[in-house]
Amino acid sequence: MKLSPDEIIFWQYGFIKLNATIVFTWALMLLLTVSAIVITRNLATDHKRSRWQNLLEIVVTAIEKQIEEVGLSQPRKYLGFLGTLFLYVGVASLCTVIPGYKPPTGSLSTTAALALCVFVAVPSFGIKEQGPGGYLKSYMEPTCIMLPFNIISELTRTLALAVRLFGNIMSGEMIMGILLSITPYIFPIVMTLLGLLTGMVQAYIFSILAAVYIAAATRVKTTKPKTQLPANPL
Q1: SS3 assignment for the chain
Q2: Which of 63, 144, 150, 201 has the fewest Cβ atoms within 10 angstroms?
Q3: What is the pLDDT averaged over residues 30-37?
Q4: pTM of the shown model
Q5: Where are the domains of the chain?
Q6: Are 17 and 9 in contact (CB under 8 A)?
Q7: What is the rounded distance in angstroms from the CA atom of residue 112 to the CA atom of residue 138?
Q8: pLDDT exceeds 70 at position 222
C-alpha cells in the first residue's frame, strides 16, 4: 500500500516525474480558484442569497473571528493568507473520500512548502507593521545576546510546523492502512470519518499557529506615559 502521494507516479521522463503530489496539489488549487470565482460572481446584498454565499460568509466570518481572537487587531489584513492556508489544508483532507485520491499534505515536500510560506509571511507582515528597523530590533530583545537564539527560533519553528503537519497527516494514513490490511470490511468507514476529523483539526492548528507567529511579529510596542508627580502644596 502506497501511503505517500510521492510514491504514485503518473508520468516520468528521465529524472522528471509527475507524481500524485503535484497533480493533486494543482487540482486542489484549481478547485479552490474555480469555486471562489463561481460563488463570488453574483454576490447579493439583500436577504435573498444563495446557499453557497451563505456558506462562504459563515466560513469567512469564522476565520476572521479566530484571527482576531489570536491577537491580530485587524484580521482583514491577514484573512487572505491565513484563510487560504486553512482552506487548502482543510479541503485537502476532506477530499480523501474520493477514491484514488491522496492528500498532498501527506508529502513532506508539501508541508515544507506550506511552512516556508509561513516563514516568509511572518517577517513580511512584521516589517510592514513595524518597519524594517523596528522588526529587526525585536531579534535583539531584551539583549543583543538573544540575537542568535531568536534566529534559531525562527528556523526551528518553521521546521516544527512542517514536521507537525506531515506527522499528523501521515499517522492517520498509516493507521488507516494497517487497519484496512487487517480488517478490510469493518473499519474503512469509521477510519475515513476519523481521517476527515483529523484533517480539519490539523488545518485549524496549522492556521492558528501561523496567526500566532504573525501576531508576535506585528505586535507594536507602545511606551507607557510618564506619570507626573503631584505638585508640592508646600
Answers
A1: CCCCHHHCEEEEECCEEEEHHHHHHHHHHHHHHHHHHHHHCCCCCCCCCCHHHHHHHHHHHHHHHHHHHHCCCCCHHHHHHHHHHHHHHHHHHHHHHCCCCCCHHHCHHHHHHHHHHHHHHHHHHHHHHHHHHHHHHHHHCCCHHHHHHHHHHHHHHHHHHHHHHHHHHHHHHHHHHHHHHHCCCCCHHHHHHHHHHHHHHHHHHHHHHHHHHHHHHHCCCCCCCCCCCCCCCC
A2: 144
A3: 91
A4: 0.71
A5: 5-41+49-218
A6: yes
A7: 26
A8: no
C-beta of residue 61 within 8 angstroms of C-beta of residue 41? no
Query: How does pLDDT run across 75-118, given as a tens digit for each residue?
Result: 888 888 988 888 898 888 888 778 888 888 878 788 888 888 88
